[in-house]
Amino acid sequence: MTTIRGFQPYRRAALVLQAVIILGLPFLKIRGESAVRFDLPSLRLHFFGRALWIQEFFVVLIALLFFTFLILLVTLLFGRIWCGWLCPQTALTYLTEFAGQPAAKNLIRNIASYAGVFGVSLLVGANLIWYFVTPAEFFTRLLSDNLGPAITWAWSLLTIVLFADLAFIRHRFCATVCPYSRMQSTLFDSRTMVIAFDMQRSAECMDCAACVRTCPVGIDIRKGLSPACVSCAQCVDACAERLAKKDRQGLIGYFFGLPGQGIGFMRRNVLLVSAVTLSLMVFLVLLASGRQTLDMTVMPAHNFPPRITTDGKIINAYLIAFENRGSNALQVHLSALPAPASQTSIALNPATIMVRAGEHKTATVFAEMRDVPQHNSTVTFTLSADYGAAEQKPLLRKAVFAVPGKP
Ligand code: SF4
Ligand code: SF4
Question: What element of type H or E holds 111?
Fold first, then answer.
């Protein structure tokens, strides 16, 4: 008799690992902040030691677009692998399996099961809130009875929705509510990986119905593919176990298209979606690597035309916009140099400006040239600051220094 280990131990390990990561991430601190948290008061996303401000959310949109295409690609190649192995709904349904089949006649056991599911719902509801309010702040406010109406309502609502889902809806969610399950039939093609019954060996089926009994959504996979299948592979293991007693291979398995066909990665739709996914990934990496803590834009201040003072100096005014995308206030140092050929110097006022974390600040800066040039010339503004660990090269911006009455 062949011993069968099956997919379930690996699948359970993947689901438990995922639950541990989701529960644990808010407790993981990087540079003094939760690894992943959206801070509502400052509209700032903390992501593994980086802070993204709301004005930079196009990066998040590109990241979401990348993950959408990645999921499309994975679905096209591996079907509902996400549903069976990675989906949080599947993980929670698995972790609350004790409530899946309440014993109708055992009131005490039913109450205990539902109380357990309620406890899990409370914990998962709080866990979702920790992605917005740090666990430390949450527990401090909870223990001092000062959660506030917003957190209390959000936590209550999440707990009720999760309890209804985990206690009553469970796997029916996948077949009825989940938009991904609705969408995927349009993504599958004839070579997408599916769990299927090997029709070529149908004569070997013992009609034991072990595959049907174990199926969480009550499908008989022998009758063909069903959109309700969550790709959990329980039927694969059940059949393999039965047939192992006769030293034969199971009749249900993962197949790329029809049983007997091989993996076909070089399909036109796969190549197309791969190209888009790869392009988005490259774009995202370029965006992330080119991100600067501090940015500056220089424009002439039109409400202060260039002028010559009585002692012959020329003054220009500029509107300089600063954007501090870091987590700390920065003391910004400004300097300006005329075109390389010129020997004149330029004095700026003010030359030092404080920009708070996340602040968009516009300041009027006066530039004074002592030796009057004959024509309008180009000035290069240089911005530097003490960035601490996240060092950044000085920023250079060019602007025109206008001489009154000259072209
Ligand atoms: S048919 Fe098999 S893989 Fe699909 S849901 Fe049922 S047991 Fe899981
Ligand atoms: S478990 Fe295998 S042998 Fe038993 S009914 Fe299902 S397909 Fe047939």
Answer: helix 107-129
